[in-house]
Specification:
Helix 2 packs across helix 3, helix 8 packs antiparallel against helix 9 and helix 11 runs parallel beside helix 13. The chain is mainly alpha-helical. About 25% of the residues are buried. Among the domains are: about 60 residues, no CATH class; about 90 residues, no CATH class. It contains 17 helices and no strands. It is elongated, with a radius of gyration of 25 Å.
């Protein structure tokens, strides 16, 4: 179970600590023993279990004296956990000077700045980090999230575009980029939003989030205010197709009630259809006006 959680990058601190109490370390192989010790240390950090931290760290220090990895764990336990952030950053800076290729040390600094809500400093550190480690998907997404918090959507879009370039077949990246462009809420950005939502659906036809995004993009008044007659018809077709696909997915999943207050799938679909019809997408009147 512990191996599975490590592979999935799942923390489960309480369960990890409970399992640890039943372990007999002397019966574990070296390949299993020390990864488990580190996993238990992370659980102890989450739980602020000082006794368990002391127990596990002492075993790692005995086996790996002078290890950078152990020193990082000690810094997390003795400084970060006690919110002595400035001291922790100084330690990480010293460690980075000794090993500039250690990506985890940079990330610890960035995590501290985010914890302190120092967004400007965190953005700067992340930007510098990505100049050295350009293929770090998590870092690009973290930087995008920081820009979104500051409502700098064009910069956030740039970050997710980098992710799309790194992995063009990831439907989640296309969906996320579509959401950012939709939030920017201009006729040009809505056009981009539709494109990315459409690509996300192409990669995963069951991507409900992208389907809703595409529906909202086609029904947004800005998407039709300057559209040609043909474009309005295309939007109308997309809108109808999204409604049909969303309804089909819910029916296939056997969903009866979508919300806790008992609103049914049919009621939601009726509301979506009402929204679409109220905008008169592709109507003869709009076509004539165009």
């Amino acid at each position: 179970m512990l191996n599975k959680w490590r592979e999935e990058n799942a923390r489960n601190p309480v369960k990890v600590r409970d399992l640890w109490s039943s372990f007999q370390l002397d019966k574990l192989t070296t390949d299993d023993k020390y990864p488990i010790l580190e996993q238990v240390i992370m659980a102890a950090l989450d739980l602020h279990d000082h006794e368990l931290l002391k127990e596990c760290l002492s075993q790692l220090e005995t086996k790996f004296p002078g290890s950078t990895r152990v020193k990082r764990l000690k810094t997390m336990a003795r400084l970060e956990m006690r919110e002595r952030f400035d001291e922790a950053i100084k330690v990480y800076d010293d460690m980075i000077r000794a090993d500039e290729s250690n990506a985890i040390l940079y990330k610890r600094k960035i995590a501290i700045l985010i914890a302190q809500r120092k967004s400007f400093e965190a953005v700067k550190e992340l930007t510098d980090y990505l100049k050295k480690f350009m293929n770090d998907h998590e870092a690009w997404m973290e930087l995008a999230d920081l820009y979104i918090q500051e409502q700098e959507y064009s910069k956030a879009a740039f970050c997710v575009e980098e992710l799309v370039l790194l992995n063009p077949h990831n439907t989640l990246y296309h969906t996320r980029l579509g959401e950012i462009y939709y939030t920017m809420n201009s006729s040009e950005s809505l056009e981009s939003a539709r494109s990315y939502f459409a690509q996300a659906i192409k990669l995963n036809p069951s991507n409900l989030r992208a389907l809703y995004g595409l529906f909202l993009s086609t029904t947004n008044p800005l998407s039709t205010s300057k559209a040609t007659a043909q474009k309005k018809k295309d939007n109308s077709k997309l809108c109808s197709w999204c409604l049909s696909k969303i309804s089909s997915l819910y029916e296939d999943a056997g969903v009866q009630d979508l919300l806790d207050d008992g609103i049914s799938n049919k009621e939601v679909m009726d509301s979506l259809e009402s929204l679409a019809s109220s905008l008169s997408l592709g109507s003869s009147k709009d076509s004539t006006a165009a």
